[in-house]
Amino acid sequence: MSGIKGPAIFLAQFTDDKLPFNNLESISSWAKSLGYRGIQIPAWDKRLIDIDKAASSKSYCEEIKEKCSSVEITEFDSHLFGQLIAVHPAYDEIFDAFTEPSLRNNPKVRQKWAVKKMIAVIKASANLGLKTVPTFSGALLWHLMYPWPQRPKGIVEEGFKVLASLWEPVLNTALDYGIDLAYEIHPGEDLHDGVTFEKFLEATGSHKSVKILYDPSHFVLQCLDYIDFIHIYGEFIKAFHVKDAELRLSGRSGVYGGYQNWKERPGRFRSLGDGDIDFKKVFAALTEIRYSSWAVLEWECCIKDAEQGAKEGAPFIESHLIKTLKKSFDDFAAIATDEKRNRKILGLE
To answer: What does the CA dihedral 40, 292, 306, 223 come to, rounded to 10 degrees?
Structure first.
């Protein structure tokens, strides 16, 4: 079979207070019924998991595995915790919604809480034998993304230096437990393209736990070559969100979207197969670089219903998995190795 495992599904967009989406056992069975072999669990959703208990109790982790025995746990996703590692004050009010009510209006306490939660996700992952934690980097510099007004010299370097220092205890814990942190390259984060990933990697001293979650949808909306990215950064890609997107050129609005909602924006997310992404090339490129972890549906669409998107996602991913070559297609014409013959062919004999 292909080195890429799948299909799997990220559960965050589907959890709900009603069955089958309100507990781990039933939502796992639902995913299995649609053809998924793996589930990516949002570590912050207490309807599915107590991440602090999973960090401290291997017996609880065994209970978790038993509850979703029909599918495999691919990763514990930590995006909402990672986001809170670094928050510019302009976003404090909005991002307070990601934390406990008792911690709101206290950014320093919230940041320390986020570090503890990230460490809990790492320990829980290790208890379950998982190797990767998908996450966000957070952002100190996003408001400076466009170079007007002119950025003061040195501010970008300082921003990444501080970002790296905020992540240092989490990264070091990840290294101790043999876990990769797969940062999603995502607008709104300080790691939003290849260049910013490189800046962060450099600021961390090329920390061995700094890796990438690859999601081509965010590259389409930035007019970034999502296939070339795979070949440039392949050694760092340790997680994969399969999500589609489209960019509809317009005379009224562009990449920045005019403050419009998702449906009206020129760049918008779509269900698999409904957007612009050439997933045959994506899966081929990932297979070429020997990516061997999961292909995880992250469903987001401004038109199609979620359950329809989930139902269509499993066979879509399945159809793109590549069974790799066992022998070359032209082996029928192979000639046995003969050094003397080779030298003769080269005109050396």
So the answer is: 120
